Amino acid sequence: MSMGYKLRTAHYQLGEIIAEPISKSSNQHKNYVVLILMRAGLCFGNGIADKLEQLGSNISIIFVNDDKVSNEDLEIVKDKDIIIVDAVINSGKSVFSLIDQLPNANSVKLATTVIPSSSTELLESYDLYTVRVSNNQYEGAKVQVISDGKGPDTGDRLFSTYK
Length: 163
Prior knowledge:
globular, 7 strands, 26% strand, alpha/beta, 5-stranded parallel beta sheet, two-stranded parallel ribbon, single chain
């Protein structure tokens, strides 16, 4: 299991890879706002934003804490295509919480490194970009092995913050 620097680099590079099909999904360079769910989505989201900018799009980045978008940030998202980045989408609760706050939720794209196959149906009305679909699902916790429905939290693996 990769952790720390190697995992952060891998997530950034995966973001760069996912950005290409996102860019190709529109016929012109777009004005995107990338909403990055902190903290596990940070490296993946930065990779997406940087690559889209390299490909000629205009990018704004908003770091989202506690699944809340501020009034100032809501002004930034107006008239832009929105990409919500979450390292792992399990139930979709965090993503739906954000979507409900957005004024132009019809232009939302979702990007994640992994999503359980049981959750893809919940998000079928959105453009979903993922590195992989998994048959496994567990709750992220401060543990290093999967046990009793809990497994290693992605953020802890990225930033080496296990107990």
